[in-house]
Specification:
The protein is α+β, with helices and mostly antiparallel strands and 81 residues long. 47% of the residues lie in helices and 38% in strands. The chain is built from one helix and three strands; from the N terminus they run E-E-E-H. The longest helix is centred in the last third of the chain and has 38 residues, at 43-80. The two termini are 30 Å apart.
């Protein structure tokens, strides 16, 4: 599980654009994936970027919560033996 994500600015043909990046698991390896957000300085781009970061954080929290529950369950089973 990779929890990394962030924003990156790229200059294309002299214009600045914002990209959201995160890591995904593909075939047992991690790969950095980027998604276009919009032009830098746009209110819409800023709002979209915050939504994307929040969505990723919520997904990561769900994954961590699931893992913690599995670990706790395994620990309880071990103590019964």
């Amino acid at each position: 599980m990779e929890l990394g994500c962030g924003l990156a600015m790229k200059i294309v043909h002299g214009r600045r654009y914002l990209y959201f990046w995160r890591y995904v698991r593909l075939n047992g390896t991690s790969k950095k994936v980027e998604r276009y957000v919009g032009p830098v300085g746009s209110n819409e781009t800023g709002e979209k970027a915050v939504r994307m970061l929040l969505e990723h954080a919520m997904d990561a929290k769900e994954e961590v919560d699931l893992r913690v529950a599995r670990y706790k369950s395994a620990l309880r089973k071990m103590r019964r033996v």
